Amino acid sequence: MELVKKEGRKVDSVELVEKYLKDESYKDALIIQSGIIGLSRQFLHNEGFVEYLPVIVSTITDPLNRDVFEAQIDYYGHKYYITKSMIVQKQVGILVHDKIFSFSPNLRLEREEKAQSGRHLIDFVQLDLEVKNAKREDIMSLMEDLIIFVINNLLQDHSELIKKYHPGLSVPKKPFNRISVKEAKKRFGDDYEKIISEKSTEPVWLIDMPIEEREFYDKQNPLEPDTLLDFDLIYPEGFGEGISGGEREYEYDQIVKRIKLKGNNLDSYEDYLKIARKGYLRPSAGCGIGIERFTRYIMGLEHVEKTRLFAKVPGQFSI
Ligand code: ASN
User: Could you tell me the pLDDT band of residue 66, with boundaries at 50, 70 and 90?
Assistant: First the structure.
């Protein structure tokens, strides 16, 4: 990894505290966020899910295949990676319980340019869930129900507060519209994700990502082998991507083929590949919904930084 010569901006800790005390939107966003967490948990418990505690360090984590810096810790002569997502642990978790979720803190050391996107933090939490033997349709439908349940309840319990920040927010209608990446590129060009988000007034599913654009664990579509059986959810009104997920690869040969296709080194996945080689992995599907982004969308805030205390914006250093 190349060295970063430029120094990131250090945020003054006292100024930060003063900002939290002066700007009421932090306090208000945290009330909504607390509601999102409680309602999502209630919804998933009602659906028969078991909550797992998050895994923070592991010998293996999501490769992500994006331009982020590696975060690793040397410990007794071995390397621990800081979790970028719990995808691998979820695939093992569903062998123990069929339906699982976790509020999983993820560290992704994004480039500082990402600070401008309005939706990137290097340290964030996703509600990550996985279901054994599920298809992507099942997870998309489940997430539609979860979003509708959460927004419906929040609009009832905190209508004045939400109206103050996001007066146009309404409960989305099921089923959400969907569009394939191929179709989206044809209609809107390379900037399709941004355009779809800005043009929409309801959330939209973006499906069938090109195989080379996503990680090895999202399942290749056998009927259309250049695409995956996966999905993203795009929030309306320009709030951008908020969920990603899909069906999973679980067969050893296919996983190896997919890791090689991404040009990744098989050795780094040995702990995972050993489990796959033994034939333990099972079909599953799942996804993750970013808690800060969900809060930002509901509150209609300009930047995710406003949705939590101690937010870590790419390129900045703070308490
Ligand atoms: N949580 C995502 C999923 O389940 C993976 C990710 O965060 N990269 O597909």
Answer: confident
pTM listed for this prediction: 0.96
Nearest residue to 269 (alpha-carbon basis) of 91, 75, 55: 91
Q: What is the pLDDT of residues 242-268, one digit of tens each?
A: 999 999 999 999 999 999 998 889 998
**Which atom belonging to ligand 1 lies closest to the Cα atom of 86?**
1
Ligand 1 binding pocket mutation candidate from 87, 99, 121 (most atoms within 8 A of CB): 87
Which CATH number fits the domain 9-170+250-317, given the four candidates 3.30.930.10, 2.40.50.140, 3.10.100.10, 1.10.620.20? 3.30.930.10
Provide the CB-side half-sphere exposure for 118 (13 A, CA).
Answer: 14
The domain limits of the chain are 9-170+250-317
The residue whose C-alpha atom lies closest to atom 4 belonging to ligand 1 is 287
The pick from 102, 125, 128, 213 for probing ligand 1's pocket by mutation, whose C-beta has the most ligand atoms within 8 angstroms, reads 128
All residues at 6 or more sequence positions from 111 whose CB lies less than 8 Å from its CB, including other chains = 67, 68, 314, 315
* End-to-end Cα distance, the chain: 26
